[in-house]
Amino acid sequence: MNVAPIQQTGVQYAAICAEQSVQTLHRHNDKLSRRHGIGFEDVWRSHG
Predict the structure, then answer these.
(1) In this structure, what DSSP letter does residue 37 have?
(2) Fewest CB atoms within 10 Å of the CB: 17, 21, 27, 37?
(3) What is the average per-residue pLDDT within 34-45?
């Protein structure tokens, strides 16, 4: 039995899931910043 392809698919699947969740998070941040009239970068700069 060759397990490597299954492991590879698992890694790709995990990467895709992570990427999608990051994109969802960014989209959520965009909605929030538009609603409040401030950008995430502005908040970051004011604390930096």
Answers:
(1) T
(2) 37
(3) 67
